[in-house]
Design a protein that fits this description.
10 helices; alpha/beta
Length: 527
């Protein structure tokens, strides 16, 4: 018999590590990354043996343990460990006590027969603004004659609430998307128009300035709804978005930049941790940071011109109290020059490698003096625009036109004039971009930040074929799904995979999702 309370069941379902001390969460996550990286190395070794019997090449970093793909630096903790999410998707259903039209999270997996919904009043990852909005929406639909969604019977109208928030003190905002099922008798245009107006009147408040709760004014700034005709209970909601009231976008803030975010556009859900992540991406690209006097200084250099703090000497995770400082300078220093890379039994050299045989730290990267940043799968341009002040030019590639439109707007919003964004598939656009810079003294550095499922193999082939791209930072939000991408970037040259193979020089994880089993893994690849 399950003796857990409904709140405990829900927390176990949506934040499965909530019972675990935070330092131990970091240990477990990095241990899983280490396991996956070892498996990836084995796959690369097999690829070389099957290709021509040669031995695979890996970094000869003294910190890298035997059998590991690369040295995995200590996991960097999230600056916020609770209430960090700026986007939540709440389901509508029946509570374990039988209360209909409960808004919250499912208490388990649908495929295991669990359909009950619990209120998210004590979920550790939900922000205070999102919880307040959830409670108000629940209040609204419980006063509506439209039925709540019944997942078991696939009936009902109110199905989901998406809440996106900006908690900047000077500009708090809440964007709401109410998801409805297209069910009779609420399908006539007149009935839908009536419900739209009721929803607007509720959230806009009597004066059109928003509603209030016990904590004061609730800063709802945008209201949308989506009428979903998907016939299956376990499918994702889909349908056209209809703007009902307020602003059409959120304005989010990251570092010194502002970003327009459309209701269905991707944006990092944990902004403080994303700022840490982007700092590491900048460091690992080797981009030169412009100093206040207009001069240049290598990213990761200390005030005295030397390398930054050394990473903890540990193959998986060092002391959690030091994890926040690990990698400020990217690891141990070392001299410049060529680097040895180890084969499984032999050694070679590559002039483009990021680490040295004696130190292996990212601080030993040769700074790029005329860098061109090619941001593959750039989305709304957050990474590229965050690095734009330190590069000659940013070129973003994205196949979703709406995302490119947002990226272009965000560049203008922040007065960034050295960034441009191209709509198209990477495999089609990258060759043209590379030809544009052929014969120049530009240093091409790539960033690949794919969605959770990874990228199509054609994108990997296109990156491989960009021979001028000697340095690549791969940001994996789900490394398990991206393993094949890394494997194919590193496999031997062939007719199918042209261009020299990359070598993974370093790996680092950032805890973007505390209390969950997920984190981001950053890989530095060179050739």
């Amino acid at each position: 018999e399950d003796t857990r309370t409904a709140q405990e069941r829900m927390n176990d379902a949506v934040t499965p590590l909530w019972r675990v001390a935070y330092e131990e969460q970091l240990v477990r996550k990095n241990a899983e990354f280490s396991k996956l990286m070892r498996a990836t190395r084995k796959d690369i070794v097999k690829d070389y043996k099957h290709h021509d019997g040669s031995q695979a090449r890996f970094t000869k970093d003294p910190q890298c343990t035997t059998g590991q793909l690369a040295y995995l630096e200590p996991m960097i903790p999230s600056p916020l460990r609770t209430h960090y999410r700026n986007k939540c998707e709440f389901s509508v259903g029946t509570s374990p006590e039988g209360a209909a039209k409960t808004v919250g999270f499912q208490l388990g997996l649908f495929r295991q027969g669990v359909t009950a919904i619990g209120e998210a009043t004590a979920c550790l990852h939900v922000s205070a603004l999102a919880e307040r909005a959830r409670a108000k929406f629940q209040e609204y639909i419980q006063g509506s004659e439209m039925a709540g969604f019944n997942r078991a019977e696939n009936t009902g109208v109110w199905r989901q609430l998406t809440v996106r928030t900006c908690d900047q003190a000077a500009d708090p905002q809440i964007l709401l998307i109410a998801h409805l099922m297209h069910r009779a008798p609420f399908t006539s245009p007149a009935r839908l128009a009536e419900e739209k107006q009721r929803l607007v009147d509720f959230f806009a408040g009597p004066d059109g300035q928003g509603l209030s709760d016990a904590q004061g004014r609730l800063p709802v700034s945008s209201l949308y709804w989506m009428v979903d005709s998907t016939p299956f209970a376990n499918s994702q909601t889909s349908g056209p978005l209809t703007h009902l009231w307020g602003r059409e976008h959120l304005q989010m803030y990251m570092g010194d930049l502002k970003f327009r975010v459309s209701p269905d556009s991707f944006f990092q859900v944990n902004v403080p941790a994303a700022e840490v992540l982007y700092h590491k991406v900048r460091e690992w690209t080797g981009i030169v940071q412009r100093g206040a006097d207009g001069g240049a200084e290598a990213v990761g250099a200390g005030a005295d011109g030397g390398a930054g703090a050394e990473a903890e000497q540990c193959p998986v995770l060092g002391d959690a109290g030091d994890a926040g400082d690990a990698g400020d300078g990217g690891g141990g220093g070392g001299g410049g020059g060529d680097v040895s890379i180890v084969t499984d039994g032999a050694a070679g050299t590559t002039t483009a490698a990021a680490a040295t045989a004696t130190g292996g730290g990212v601080s030993s990267l040769e700074p790029l003096r005329n860098p061109i940043l090619v941001d593959v799968c750039c989305g709304t341009g957050t990474i590229g625009l965050s690095l734009a002040s330190s590069v000659q030019q940013v070129v973003g590639v994205e196949m979703v036109p709406a995302a490119v439109k947002d990226a272009q707007f965000n560049a203008s919003l922040n007065n960034i004039d050295n960034a441009r964004f191209v709509v198209g598939k990477a495999e089609h656009t990258l060759p043209n971009i590379m030809r544009e810079f052929h014969g120049t003294d530009a240093d091409i550095v790539g960033i690949l930040d794919p969605p959770r499922a990874g990228v199509h193999n054609d994108v990997v082939k296109a990156v491989r074929a960009c021979t001028a791209m000697r340095r690549l930072v791969f940001v994996a939000c789900n490394f398990k799904s991206s393993r094949d991408n890394i494997r194919n970037l590193c496999r031997p040259t062939s007719n199918q995979y042209q261009g020299s193979p990359f070598v993974v020089q370093r790996a680092l994880s950032v805890d973007m999702f505390p209390q969950s089993t997920h984190a981001e893994l950053v890989l530095l690849l060179t050739r």
